[in-house]
Amino acid sequence: MSGGKGLPPHFVQLQKDFPELAHMTLKYSLGDIWGRELLDNKTCQLVALAGFAAQGTMPLFKVHAQYALNYGAVPEELMEVIYITTVTSGSPRALIAAGTLKEVFQENEVKFPVP
Description:
Blueprint: H1 9-17, H2 19-33, H3 41-55, H4 58-70, H5 75-88, H6 91-107
Helix pairs in contact: 1-2, 3-4, 3-5, 4-6, 5-6
């Protein structure tokens, strides 16, 4: 998920602070769920983004937006998640997610606005 960069810093910190939670997350989330093969990794990340946008969970949205880019998602695909969020979760959640996505684009030097 991290593009070959190892565990992300937030997860390393989780291992230090809550080792059992980190272990359960690796085993269940990354092993049992993310390890399934029916959907490709990019699609899984786009689905996750929609869920995090709907919940307003922006720290996780940001992490998984980066993972989606690492798996080959193009900026336009990530933006589509924002547009769909307006229907499923409302404009306020979509606007918050859009601001977070803009941060991810800036951090990755994605030309913005995307044409």
